Amino acid sequence: MFILKKNAEKYVYTNLKTIASIEEQRIDLKIKIPRETIKICVIDDEGFDINMLYDLGYKNIRKKIQFESMDEYQDYDIILCDVEGIGINVDKEKQGLAVAEQIKNVYPEKIVLLYSGKNIESFGEMPKIIDGYLRKQASMSDLAKSLDEYYKKSINPINVWKKTRDEMLNNNISTKTIAFLEDRYCRSLLERKEYLYNNEDLNDTDIFSTENICKYIEILAKVVEVVGRLSSDV
Q1: Of all residues in the chain, what percent are helix, strand and coil, respectively (each to 5)?
Q2: pTM (two decimals)
Q3: 182-199: string of b/e by CB count within 10 Å (b at 16+)?
C-alpha cells in the first residue's frame, strides 16, 4: 500500500503498480526496431560510407566531418563519434573522447558511441558516461546489429525506469513521489494510456510544487510513447 499526502488533508493512493508488473509482461521482447526511423549522426573525418548502413535499412543517417555546434545533435537518437582527428578544437589530447563526453553530458538520453579503428587508450581513458565502443574493423552487418541492440536498450522500459529512479534518488526526490511515478509509468505502459501527463490524479497532487520532477516525467513519457508505437500485439 502507498499513501500520498494531498494538501495535508487526505491520503488517497493504494495498490500502486511496480516495475515488476512490466517485467512479468516482458514488454521489452515485443519491441520492433524501426531502422528506417532511427536518426543517426556519424562524426568522422575519414571515409565512413553511410550508404552501406542506408542499404541495411537505416534511412535517416547523416555524416559530419567535425564537431562544430552542440545544437546540431539535438534531433539524433544515436551519435557515432570517431576519435582521432575529431574535436581538436575541443581538446587536442582527448579529441573524439572529449567530443563524445560533451555530447552525452548535454544529451544524456541519447546513445553516444565511440567508433574507431585506433587504440583509444592512446587518447585517454574512455569516459564512463559513454554508452559503448564499436570498432571500425567490424562488418557493416555486425555494426547494424550493434546499433539495434544499443537502441533497444535505450528504450527498454525496465532499464529506463531503473536509471531514472536512481537519478531521482540521487537528486533527493522523495520515495513517495518515486513510487507514485512508478505506478503512473507502469499503468501507462500496460494500458497504453497517457497517465503521466493526462491524468486527473496527477494534476491534483502537489508534487509539482514541491519537487522538480518534470524532466523525469518527460523521459518516462517518451519511453511510453515510443514503446507503444513499436510494440507488437503478439
Answers
A1: 45, 10, 40
A2: 0.78
A3: bbbbbbbbeeeeebbeee
